[in-house]
Write a structure and sequence with these properties.
Blueprint (H helix, E strand, L loop, with lengths): L4 E8 L3 E2 L9 H16 L9 E4 L11 H8 L8 E4 L5 H14 L5 E9 L16 H6 L5 H11 L4 H20 L10 E4 L5 E4 L11 H5 L20 E11 H6 L6 E10 L9 H12 L8 E4 L4 H11 L12 H4 L6 H16 L3 E8 L3 E9 L2
Parallel strand pairs: 3-4, 3-5, 10-11
Antiparallel strand pairs: 1-8, 1-9, 2-8, 5-8, 6-7, 9-12, 11-12
Length: 384
Amino acid sequence: MTREAVIVEAVRTPAGRRKGVFRETHPVHLASGILKELSNRSGLDPRWIEDVVMGCVSPIGEQGLNIGRLAALDAGFPVTVPSVQLNRMCGSGLQAIQFACQEIMSGDMDITVAAGVESMTKVPILSDGNDETIPASLKEKYEFVHQGVSAELIAEKYSLTRVELDRFSFESHQKALAAQKEGRFAREIHDIEGLDREGNTVSVTKDEGPRPDTSLEALAALKPVFKENGVITAGNASQMSDGAAALLLMEKNKALELGLKPRAKIVANTVVGSDPVLMLDGVIPATRKVLDKAGLSMKDIDLFEINEAFAPVVLAWMKELGPDREKVNVNGGAIALGHPLGATGVKLMTTLLHELERRNGRYGLLTICIGHGMAVATIIERLN
């Protein structure tokens, strides 16, 4: 009998800016707080959970020692609930969803949690390694460059101008601000404690990244970061962030047996490798491959979430695949809302699910570019 993996619940923290509201929050607490809320919202006794799979890109320091296990214990889950931390770089959160889904579809388990966490304040990017830690023999074979350099190369390959990149970034902020004003994120976000600028404890209720004062003129004034006369700036790249997110996944019949409502099912998953120098355009073949696996076309998809690591990633993807732009990142993306690395895949899936429900859409596609030339993609189907 075919087993179906379904999403029963999905929740996330707000995304805090690096050195922002969560600057003093331990990443274990970010993750454990969201695991507690996942259990509370679903009403599921956590003793039923058979595995917690948690993405984290820099598993060192306060994010070391298997943060998945530490977070589950800190959340009060029984010691009998195992947990694992994984790292597929920026795709870690979505990879956690795929692995947790595969545990169910294989028949090994019936109930799993897919989660992700990252504190880019407490554990800065590249804390676990950098160009100097790569063997010289491998660097002779491949030119390992910063992702920002790859973004410059993609902009050049796809003939994307600075004006196009800045306009896309401005629109990301505008869409995110509109979504916040209309309360579109309210249901998916779990408020947690953080600190305001004066150091007072506050309840953080919304993503910290969107900037009401962003303008095309302000974006145009920013200097290129990675290349003289280049096009990539701090304004058209994703924001470094702190945050966590989690999904409760079940085999469909088990969910029904327990009286829980399946909200969406996993239709297809894929991960691909691509040129490690261009690095970030793997989302194009990943999208094609996951659509082929699902037997769907671009026109069948109601909503797309493509991680805005850098503006050229999304613009090149749109140029190559030709989606209806009104279906892409409808509430803004990482340029405005932040990119908490290991949490991003689960965060975006949470947003995708809630927006499909809000619009009564059917299919959603999520894809994320990954360092060293990879990309991951998943299609879900909302269930009535």
